[in-house]
Specification:
With 656 residues, the chain is α+β, with helices and mostly antiparallel strands. The protein is 31% helix and 22% strand. It starts with a strand and ends in a 6-residue tail after the last helix.
Length: 656
Amino acid sequence: MYVNGTADTTLVRAGTFAVLGADGGVSGRGGTSPDGLFHRDARHLSRWELAVDGAAPAVLVPSGGETSALCVLTPPGTRDEPAPYTVFREQAVDAGVLTECVRLVNNRPAPVTAVLSLTADADFADQFELRSDKRRYEKTGARRTASTHTEGVTFTYERGAWLSRTAVCASPAPSDVRPAGVRDTVHRLEWRLELPAHGTAELLLTVTAYAHGAPAPALAGTPGEAVAEQAADTAAFVGAPLPMPPGAPEGLAAACARGLSDLAALRIPATGPDGEHVRVPAAGIPWFLTLFGRDSLFTSLFALPYRPALAEGTLLALAAAQGTEYDTGRGEQPGRVVHEIRHGELAHFRQVPYGRYYGSVDATPLFLVLLDSYTETTGDLALATRLEPVARAAVSWMFRDGGLDDGGYLVYSPDPHGLVNQNWKDSEGAICFLDGTQAEGPIAVAEAQGYAYDALVRTARLARTVWDDSAYADRLERTAADLRDRFLRDFWMPGPDFPALALDGRGRQVDSLASDAGHLLWSGILDGRHAQRVGRRLLEPDFFSGWAIRTLASGLPGYHPLSYHRGTCWPHDNAVVLLGLARCGLTDEARTVALGLMEASAHHGHRLPEVMAGYSRAQHPRPVPYPHSCSPQAWAAATPLAVLTALRDADGRGPG
């Protein structure tokens, strides 16, 4: 993220992240790139401003790093009177904790006294408050307080039974701690540190977030200790470099390594059906560091041939949160797989529906796809056996509440209190006709029918080979075959020779030309002839920008290169298409998309962003950023792994 031309540093581990400025500080901003320390959907540190000798220090080396943030600062000085000492600042995060070591080095042959002050505050803002959509939430009775203690200050937020705290502790203890304002909880901590001639002094700071309803974080050590622990954990997850197939695009190995490193950092703790602890891929930074059904499922699918433990954890965590009753406020239905889980204040008080929100048409079939894929890839039958009741409940949801029994398709209706669209293109207006108008529900989006088809076929295989229920398998296979035949009849548009984006509530074809059609190649719902026509069409210039396939073909009335789902390019979307191209034998097209993605990756330090603008390479020689893109983001991080799998499949080698 960039603010006023300066790159922020983002540190993330175990469900906690910090966004820090060039000097390692936090200003308390919101909008598209909020800064601070975040834990369980709340900002636990909103001010963190270091001053030396009464002034903001000069930045010699701006903050940067992967597992820790390092910067070099000095007090004011001139060419003739250079700074008497230099400040080296190192910061790291762990679960619920930010640790910082401030090391001062005396540049002079005589003792020096350094005066440091740190302005700190915690606003406990919910992440939904910090977004740039200008929404306001009533918080009757909410109260923020601050109390000083020997080692620092503790900030407290109370609202009814809701209680959160942030404790700031320092060693050595500050010489003074006092309020820095009249009406708020901002406090200033001060130290006078004696530096011997050419000597050093250190200050260790610990910020601990005690989130409502969460266990207390473990005792923190130094930033160096946190970095060493994270580095060992990441190295174990990343492992040895993955072997590349012949002719792999330049940079694919680096992108895979970077993606695995990001996935290691994005793993968060979750709970399985029997209360067991698992780690799952969260969706992304800054808005989505939590379990998301669709995102975690696709991420795990992409990584499955290389890191199957992600899939196992995701399946167990989603099984534990599967719907068991009807709750219209959050879209819960028996058997439905959860879309999103939040732990913040607004979710707790149900001011937003996302505490446990089920507004997704595709997470349920994708759960079934991943379960069979995991079984097929690993040969492990135990998980499919254990989750048989969960899988059967998911299938029942697809027939009953999902819509297969009523109209033959998976459908959703817009949620007036949640998501208007409940497929992966879930922004308002994303499912649009050629003229740009939003379709009205119940809506049957094309790609969800493909997922349903694949889920039925795969679950039938599990029923036949693992659960020993051939009658159930026969029923699912018949339904899948009927769905495949009906889909081509109802969705194929003869004029453009392309599938419709969706069917609206009146059964009309939503006639925009969209990238969702590429998902149909991956799921197998299209026959080979139609799949190849779709695959080749997606490589035409109105779809393919040179970097990636656009979500909506350029030139359509609804197209906008900076629209979230109506013209941008999403790496994960392209990954699904790429796997489909390989499945259909479109090797040249698969290599073209793979090359574009890897060249885009090289412009981002081999880290693919969540989404890129839809401008073509002819318009700009570098991929144009999308201003609200998350980074790192899980399914973008896993995209290079899908690219690797697709290229191996295209070569007939498979992912082994």
